[in-house]
Amino acid sequence: MKFIKWDCFHEIEAYTTCSYCNGELMNMSFNGIDDQQVLKNREKLAQTLHTDLNHMVATHQRHTTNFLKVQLQDGGRGMWSQEDAFDNYDALYTRDRHLWLWSFHADCCPVLLYCRDQKIVAAIHSGWKGTVNEIVGKVTKHLITHENCNPQMIYAYIGPSIEQRNFEAKDDIIDLVKQMSFDTHDFYIQKEDGAYLLNSKGLIQQQLLNLQVPQKNITISPYCTIENEDLFFSYRRNKSPHRNITLISMK
After folding, report:
1. What DSSP string describes 17-32?
2. Model-level pTM?
3. Residue 37, SS3 per DSSP
4. If we measure between CA atoms, which residue out of 145, 80, 67, 114 comes closest to residue 251?
5. Where does the signal peptide begin and end (predicted)?
6. pLDDT-derived band of residue 64, with 50, 70 and 90 as boundaries?
């Protein structure tokens, strides 16, 4: 199976799955089209990572800012069907080792966190709605405030997603960007036709910086899901119903 790896520390593993492997479609999300194949893909993924689906957990994402602390006993939720997935959450975090946290995406931004001092990992789904509502900042602030994470020891991965040069947004989105809790004018550029190009990865990074996470601790993926058709599914490119996942676990 083909992965893009986040090289961070030896005690964690973190990857983004690619959309094809040896010519085979590697959709990871149940969508009612090829769910049996999705299950086979998930089982192949688990085998490749030397684990099983009972050590993986996923949510039914709905573009919220809701997040949930999970434990090893939650493993398997959302793996064999969407019906038993944690519903209405777009981020998960855990202190437990050997539990893989998933984030689904196809242009939306997956964000991984590793709080090295407290040994906590998190997986966050930040589409434009999550970004303007500052889900990454909210999860990070919670970890600092309620889990005693030192922001200087938080490491972040802003994963493959749509790049600014391809993220065209209209006034409805930009008006929400302008209402965020910090000055956002550097993160969008107006085009001649009146639309804007939005830097969602930059907005996510700024949320982390505002909480004193050091710049050197933040890794931003250079990949654009629109442009890299051989690696990623993209809803904006072709209305794809399929999803990649970005996932993280502590060894």
Report:
1. E-SEETTEE---S--S
2. 0.97
3. helix
4. 114
5. none
6. very high
